[in-house]
Amino acid sequence: MLVVNAGSSSLKLRVLDEHGAVAAAADLPAVGGDGATDGAAIRAAIESFGPVDAVGHRVVHGGTLYAAPVVVTPEVRKRLESLTDLAPLHQPKSLAALDAVTRVLPAVPAVACFDTAFHATIPAAAATFALPAEWRARWTLRRYGFHGLSHAYVSARAAELVSGEPAPGRPAPGSLRVVSCHLGAGASLAAVHGGRSVDTTMGFTPLDGLVMATRSGSVDPGLVLWLEEHAHMPPRELADTLEHRSGLAGLAGTGDMRQVLARATAGDERALLGRNVYLHRLRGSIAAMAAAMDGLDMLVFTGGVGENSPEIRSRAAAGLHFLGVAVDETSNTLGKDERGDDWEITASGARVRTYVIAAREDRQIAAEVRSVLGWAS
C-alpha cells in the first residue's frame, strides 16, 4: 500500500506492508509551485519502492460530497477540484500529488481518504453556525472539522489499548468517551463518543479553534470586521496574517513550540505569554469537548507537540483536575527507548486515563483503502 500525504510544504510517501509497518519511505518537497517536486523525482521515488497494489491519498476536504473514502475516478477528481474554494491552501496540493502519482501508476487503484470525513457524524447542534438559513443553504456553511484521519486513528487505538482490561470500571467500547488532542503546527481536538466524532474545534476552515504555530485559532469575527473597516486592511492581507503570522509566531515570535518553551523557562515575556495563551485555550477546549459527551474517560495526546512535549502535557493536565485528569510525571517524561510509540501517563488514582499515542494517519488511510477495495484487514 502506497500512502500519499501531500502537505502545504512537503510530500510524504510511505509504503506499508500488510501489518501496517513502513516498508519504504520518501519525503519530498510539496508538489506544485516554484521549486516544488517535479514528476521525475516522484517517479524515481515510487519506482524505487517496487510494486504496490493500491494507493491511498490524504485529501484535506471532502465537503458534504464525501463522508467516506472513495475510489478516484475522473468524475471524483473533478468533484474534488470543485471543493478547492473550501481549502485553497491544501486542496490544490492534494490534487497535484494525486495527478503526479497517477501518471506513474495509472493502472493501480487510487482511493481518496478525507480529513473531514470522520467529523461527518457531528450532530447538527455542534455543526451548525448561528447564521441566516439562506446563507447556510446557499454556501453550505457549517463546521466541517479537520485532522479527521489522525483523530480516527488515535481514538480507535486508545480504545484498543484498554479493550483487554478487566471489565469493572472500564466503559463499554460503544460508550467510551475520548478527547483526542492533535497538537502540531496545526492543532485541533475531537470529542469521540463510542468511536464517533461528536464535536471538534476546527470549523468551516482549519483556522478555527486552538492557538497553532502560525494560525490564530478562534478570534472574534467583529475584530476582523473592525480591522477591515477601520484599519482598511484588505481581505487578502487579513487572511495571510491570520494564517501565517499569528498563533505562537504572533505571540512569541516563533511558531516552534520547543523554542517557545525554552524562552519561557528563561523568562522571556513574549514566550511566557505565548505559552500561557496556548495552554489557556487548550484547557478550555478540552473541557468543552468533554461537555459535548457528558464526561470524559480518556484523554489522548498526539502530533508533534502532543507526542514530544512533556511540559505541554503536564501543564495542560494541571488545569483539568476537576475533570479527573492527572498525569504521572515519571511516565510523562519517559524516553522513546523506555516507552515505545504509545504509552500511558495516568497518575495513580486518576479517574480519567491519559495516553500519548503516535500519530499514524498512514495506518488509518491504509485501513480505509482496504475497506473500500474489499480487502481483508
Question: How would you describe this structure to a colleague?
Answer:
With 377 residues, the protein is an alpha/beta fold. It has 16 helices and twelve strands. It has helices at 39-49, 74-82, 91-104, 124-127, 133-139, 148-163, 221-230, 235-244, 247-252, 257-265, 269-292, 303-308, 310-318, 329-332, 336-339, 361-373; strands at 2-6, 10-16, 22-29, 55-59, 70-71, 110-114, 177-183, 187-193, 196-200, 298-302, 343-344, 353-356. The strands form two sheets. Strands 3-2-1-4-6-5 form a six-stranded mixed β-sheet, sandwiched between helices. The longest helix has 24 residues, at 269-292. The protein starts with a strand and ends with a helix. 41% of the residues are buried.
